[in-house]
Amino acid sequence: MADKRILTIQDISCVGQCSMTVALPILSACGMETCILPSAVLSTHTGGFQGYTFRDLTDDFPAIHRHWQKEGLTFDAVYTGYLGSVRQIAYVEDILSTMLTPEGKVIVDPAMADNGKLYAGFDDSYVEAMRGLCGKADVILPNITEACMMTGAPYQESYDEAYVQRLMEALTAVCPGKIVLTGVSYCPQDSGVAVYQEGHVSYYRHRRVPRSFHGTGDIYASTFTGAWLRGNKVMEAAQIAADYTLRCIEGMEGREGHWYGVRFENELPYLIKRLEGVQ
Ligand code: PXL
């Protein structure tokens, strides 16, 4: 594999096993030189802790961008996750249009909502800006909630294949690239991902663990990104990411007190072997 340098833009939640503290180790395990642009610094993630701090780093973006340009730096890919503000999304778009190599890829995880609700601190204007960013991506990785918010489709807790097909078609108006829809579940026993490419929806299904965790979307998107940039096809990368994320969640059995994230660290050796084709 040729050396690749990737930039990931997402928050640093100092405690919480999500966003940057997940993306950096996973992308490194995938063999990527990983550069970071923190969108915000929070004492913890926003999903269950009370009284967290939030420092928006939007105002630092222009000077960081100018310095990188002065240094002549470029990236083989930019992968974005949880961002700090609507204004920041415009700066991210500037970075995409100036800092990528000619073949450079853009991966956008809209990371703004789950279970039918926006995360704390986001509103409709953020959804609109995120929709614009997804229009510049080669691959987007929304969950069902984010897909509904960006397309105006009604959110449903239970649905069928026709609903997912309609959602995918609506998403093609948001993103011209490939779509990896996560958390697609037609029955309580299984879950999986649906991948839309060249007009066709394919599924990868696996067993569902009846407990949900913060940060699993970030684990999934980081693993997909690393596996895809290593040269795996989109569907293969989607499967590797699903298998790894599921193992991380399965490893939480017996760790009931650990509520804020998952022990993805324990499964990194599996991921490395899987990517090397050993497992
Ligand atoms: O995992 C998504 C995420 C990322 N960053 C922050 C969050 C969340 C989800 O709640 O709060 C700060």
Structure description:
This protein has a single domain, classed as 3-Layer(aba) Sandwich (UDP-N-acetylmuramoyl-L-alanine:D-glutamate ligase). Helix 2 packs parallel to helix 3 (86-99), helix 3 (86-99) packs parallel to helix 4 (124-134) and helix 5 (144-151) packs across helix 6. Helix content is 37%, strand content 24%. The strands form two sheets. It has a nine-stranded mixed beta sheet with strand order 3-2-1-4-5-8-9-10-11, sandwiched between helices. Strands 6-7 form a two-stranded antiparallel ribbon. It has helices spanning 20-29, 61-70, 86-99, 124-134, 144-151, 161-172, 216-229, 234-250, 268-275, and strands at 5-15, 33-44, 54-56, 75-80, 100-108, 113-114, 117-118, 139-140, 178-181, 190-197, 200-207. The protein is of the alpha/beta class. Residues 11, 13, 18-19, 42, 45-47, 82, 111, 119, 214-215, 217-218 line the site of 3-hydroxy-5-(hydroxymethyl)-2-methylisonicotinaldehyde.
Mind sketching the topology for me?
Elements: E1 5-15, H1 20-29, E2 33-44, E3 54-56, H2 61-70, E4 75-80, H3 86-99, E5 100-108, E6 113-114, E7 117-118, H4 124-134, E8 139-140, H5 144-151, H6 161-172, E9 178-181, E10 190-197, E11 200-207, H7 216-229, H8 234-250, H9 268-275
Parallel strand pairs: 1-2, 1-4, 4-5, 5-8, 8-9
Antiparallel strand pairs: 2-3, 6-7, 9-10, 10-11
Bound molecules: 3-hydroxy-5-(hydroxymethyl)-2-methylisonicotinaldehyde.
